[in-house]
Amino acid sequence: MSEQDNPRREFLRKTLTLIPVVTVASTGLGGSVLMATPDAQAAPVAAPPVAASGPAYEPTYFTAEEWAFVNAAVARLIPADEQGPGALEAGVPEYIDRQMNTPYASGALWFMQGPFNADAAPEMGWQSKLVPKQIYRLGIAATEELCKKAYNSTFAGLDSATRDEVLKQLEAGTPKFDSVPAKMFFSFLLQNTKEGFFCDPIHGGNKGMIGWTMIGFPGARADFMDWVERNEQYPFPAVSIRGERA
Amino acid sequence: MSTVMKKVDAVIVGFGWTGAIMAKELTEAGLNVVALERGPMQDTYPDGNYPQVIDELTYSVRKKLFQDVSKETVTIRHSVNDVALPNRQLGAFLPGNGVGGAGLHWSGVHFRVDPIELRMRSHYEERYGKNFIPKDMTIQDFGVSYEELEPFFDYAEKVFGTSGQAWTVNGQRVGEGKGGNPYAPDRSDHFPLVSQKNTYSAQLFQKAANEVGYKPYNLPSANTSGPYTNPYGAQMGPCNFCGFCSGYVCYMYSKASPNVNILPALKPLPNFELRPNAHVIRVNLDSTKTKATGVTYIDALGREIEQQADLVILGAFQFHNVRLMLLSGIGKPYDPKTGEGVVGKNFAYQNMGTIKAYFDKDVHTNNFIGAGGNGVAIDDFNADNFDHGPHGFVGGSPMWVNQAGSRPIAGTSNPPGTPAWGSAWKRATADYYTHQVSMDAHGAHQSYRGNYLDLDPVYRDAYGQPLLRMTFDWQENDIKMNRFMMEKMGKIAEAMNPKAIARIGKQVGDHFNTSSYQTTHLNGGAIMGTNPKTSALNRYLQSWDVHNVFVPGASAFPQGLGYNPTGLVAALTYWSARAIREQYLKNPGPLVQA
Q1: Which terms does the record give in the GO molecular function aspect (chain A) (predicted)?
Q2: Which residue of A has its CA nearest to B403?
Q3: Has residue B592 been placed in a domain?
Q4: N or C: which end of chain B has fewer CB within 10 A?
């Protein structure tokens, strides 16, 4: 089914403005918070949502412009919708920014000795000399340039449908960026978004364990002796490493 | 200049399963033993502390326990006509690092071997004729029989605390209707522990397999079904199916590991020393090149240290053993053009196929529940349990549901055609994460003239030594077998009557994909056998060329098995240790005359 044919998307575009974030509320982070989600029609995403319990996260790696892109992109990759809150509410941008300061993001976990053959077949695995920090910097800049040329707007200034269109182009590798393959940039963006949605909250994402709650993953409970053989829904909510309960 | 350490009786390179078993056996024989492990010290505490270990991002996604490829990796090419490229990020396989090796982060599926796979070439020639085996297929016999190894399989299971159900014990049928495997070879004793519980997924597989007419059995698992104390006095607690098994340190003392099952018995010994952060760079030979004098390693501070020893055990991971032999000049390197030489020859893997079945919300498979070794399998298409004649391929495959625990970052999966992001992805992920069954055909992989290991001419490790180069690709026999197994396993999946099925098998023309995980079951390169012209080691895992070097591990397998390799690796190590203790130490020299 193509996105254009998706009646639910049409429904969302027309009607969705406010979603009660029940799972976040139940963590005690903020009693009766109603979290605004962008109106799909009108809706530039300028700033990340503010958690009820404290000041907004300040990025340490991304610039203000890059930060706006990351927020606007992850909000489309895992959107807030009738299914529940999405990547923004889970703190995915914070997660990605924090990851940028880990050995992973500087390629320190990988074998990075040359010579490199960036044109190798996909089944040869990772062969680029780029590392995640560079991939984000270059990929965001190239995507912003594309948006400026095509729409005379920043990515975050586009409406949801157009942002989805741009993301689909990146996913398919349609734009031919000089600095970084569009597909490569997109694959990091999507992989890290899912990591931030589903990781333990100690890493800065999955706030209120909303990712785990959405799919029924019980987190760090890690003791299912009495549930092994049963064809029953597991009844207990998720817990985190720090002992928070969803 | 190297610092020279006091000479010991035996030095062991690598402290995973084979290193730990050898250390225990050789210290029992009264030898002074030093084990050199290139990675750090690791143990249940602190590396497996609950709840810190229940962290998917840190462990399996960022690969905390696996080989540090920033320092050393392998290069890979599909044929001699390609330029090999480094495996820059671990993907297809996940070797370990540090004390315990891959034995600390493995799953725990603990099989023996199908007896015919120990005499693969002889068996196929006898049953199907010499022409049945493709010309470029270089399968061989191990040179040791199941009957000879049986006592060592039995002992290894007792050391590991393995859970399972025998089919026959000393010829008496004991496993009918209880989850025993009618194709399993005879045993001298029961498993130390009864089978683990079956997850609901495994129950669905069992029911469907029965309906299709196959003979399901409980997987033998080195995850404990109850409390257990092994012959070394090591204590284990019952596995609670936490779902953080493969890729993790077991916080419950339930998954067998060198750290839990053997190290506690070694630690107090005055004649044993474990030296972590000691990266062996070569085995040193005397001027005759027929005797090793010890090894040289780099310590944590980067100093070069020489450890002299009368006996050298290469107990590192499969491809590290092969690389060390090549770097040290032990045995003649294999040449794929002439087919001559032995070190690097018969490099083989595992031929995997996977099917996922997706269900409605009334089927609760709860995939976060899991234990690495548990499950239900069939052997109807494993080994030579069916007539290969009409099908024209060599090799077999067990098939199973082995629900080891699926975690949300890497373990979610949706029916074919689901978008990778957006609301539709979100809906499907919520709908299917706890309502799906994943089953594998864990196919044997054969050895071929063109699949081999040597040293890379371009890329080097952090110490300036050449990386190991893999030349490897799927062959026609592999694709044929994989398609056959996928079709058979598909019948089981269809009998479960799911909403949707995803089939992940091999197609004609597919190349080895270095980036997608298959298994860490790499075999060969330093193979055992009966003839020094066609094998690097004799039947006791002793180098034909340098008699005081023994090389236990899956590097000794002349081809891959249908089953997981660890059970045979452990049994062969005990078998080799017995030969060292009872024959070699009394009269050091070749145990088999060439």
Answers
A1: gluconate 2-dehydrogenase (acceptor) activity
A2: A228
A3: no
A4: N
